[in-house]
Amino acid sequence: MINTLQTKEQPLNIKGLSLLTLEELSETEIYQLVDSALTLKKQQKSGLTSKTLEGKTLAMIFEKPSTRTRVSFEAGMIQLGGSALYLNGNDLQLGRGESIADTAKVLSQYVDAIMIRTFAHEKIVELAKQASIPIINGLTDEHHPCQALADLVTIYEVKKKLKGLKLVYLGDGNNVSHSLMIAAAKVGMNCTIACPVGYEPKKQIIELVNDIGSKTGAEIKVTNNPFEAVTDADILYTDVWASMGQESEQEKRITVFEDFQVNSKITYLAKSDFRFLHCLPAHREEEVTAEIIDGPHSVVFQQAGNRLHVQKALLQAILG
Ligand code: CP
Ligand code: NVA
Q: pTM of the prediction?
C-alpha cells in the first residue's frame, strides 16, 4: 500500500459512485485507486487476469474525438471480463434533440455505467442527476478527472511519492489543468499553474483547490510568470494551447502562449531529475519542443499507458 497517510488500511468503498470532477474522492480513496492501479498493472505485466466485471456493460458516449480515453476504457472493460459500447453522440437521438434526462433514464435500463466525453460540464451533471447508474467523466470543457488519476499514478511511479512534490503546469488554464490542480490539492502535492493573462484556471476552481490545499498542506499557485513557476520543479506538465472546440482560436493562441512553451530554455530551471508529462495529443514545437517530449525526461507514453490501469481500478471499484 503506498498510502502514506498513517490511516488504517481500509478497503476502497466507492461502489456506485459517479466521477465527475475528482471532488467526489477523498485523499485516502485517491491513494487507494493509485495503489490498485499499480497492482493491476503488475498483474497484467505478469500475465494474470481477473474477470471481476463479467456480465457488466459500460456505455461510452463521445461528442468529441478520442484515442486514449476510448481505447483504454474499452480495452479495460474487455480485460476485466465486461464489455463496452462505443456510442457516437451524433448517432444517438441525443444528437437530434432527445433530452439528457430521457437518455439517462433509458440507458440506465440497459447498461451498468456510462462514460461520457462532452462539451458543457453542466451536461454531465444533469446526466448524473437523471441516471440511476454511475457516470464517469471522460472529459468535459471543465474537467478531465480520469486523466488526472493516471497522472498521479505516473508521478508516483517516477518519484515514489506524491506529497510535497512541486508540480508545474505551463499553458492554458483548461480542463486538464483544473483536474490536475484538484488532484494535486487532494494528495498534498504543491502545484503551480503558469498561464498568460486571461487564460488562468476558473476562479471557482482556484478557490476550491486553495480550500482543499489548506487541509492537505498542498500549496497551489497561479502565476503569469513561467520562469518563476518552473524553478525547482519536480514535474513539468503541459497541454495543447487550443482544446477541442477552440480550433478557431488556434492561430491567436500560438502567439499568446509563446512564452509558455516547454523547451530547454526553461527546463534548465527545473530540478535536474524533473519529469515531463503531457496528457496527449501533443503539438510538437507548439506547447512543447520535440527535444523535450521525445527526450530523456519525458514519461508521456508511460502516462498514457496508465490511463488503462487506473480506469480499470476505478471501474472495478465502482462496478465490482
Ligand atoms: N488524453 C486524452 O484524453 O486523450 P484522448 O483525447 O485521445 O482520449
Ligand atoms: N485540453 C484538451 C485535452 C485533450 C485530451 C482538450 O480538451 O482538447
A: 0.97
